[in-house]
């Protein structure tokens, strides 16, 4: 079952895609999209979570800039559009929108009250920043772009956080990956996994760098993590 709901903020309302499991009440997971909006890949991710017994909620992070964005073909034009939105995106406002989504997720019909957050690229960065606010029950960040520029937030992370990094990520250099690892080295709440030979977006279902074996390992780790933290 899937639907769209509205999330209310002080600035207005925005849409979120929801996929529901057959059995409720259930924990909720807020899914944060890449620069391509709430597209077919994010809807597939939500359905995978619903199949595993979670209410998956994917908010429209670009609602202030271009609501309803759905880029799914990875053309040069779509990349340009997504990067333009990414470069103009206000991270502080974005985290506020996610906090409002988490509140809605705790109270949505059929919810158990437990809420996790997971995100990819831009969504991965926002997952990290949101985890520093501590108002979710667990978080998973896939290849969080530009996280190395926000590591002053690392000390504030007090909830369980898992991070997936592709070792050959063209947007997160090896030096940046090491800085991320070093920042969390003494934080027992944070687990970081590296995937040899993998590029950015190695877990995007239809992406050009999709690596099925690595994605399966990462996703299995993610699902086990949420089963532990949200059940």
Q: Could you please describe the fold and organization of this structure?
A:
The chain has helices at 40-51, 76-87, 91-107, 122-131, 174-183, 212-230; strands at 2-9, 12-19, 26-32, 55-59, 111-120, 138-142, 161-166, 190-195. The chain is an alpha/beta fold and 231 residues long. Helix 3 crosses helix 4. It is globular and about 45 Å long. The protein starts with a strand and ends with a helix. The relative contact order is 0.14.
Report the radius of gyration as a whole number of Å: 16 Å
Shape: globular
Main beta-sheet strand count, sense and barrel state: 8 strands, mixed
Question: From the helix content, strand content and strand pairing, which structural class follows?
Answer: alpha/beta
Number of strands: 8
Percentage of β-strand residues: 15-25%
Low-pLDDT runs of 5+ residues are: none
Mean pLDDT: 97
Report the order of strands and helices.
EEEHEHHEHEEHEH
Widest sheet, order of strands: 1-2-4-3-5-6-7-8
Terminal residue distance: 21 Å
Work out the helix count.
Answer: 6
Helix content: 25-40%
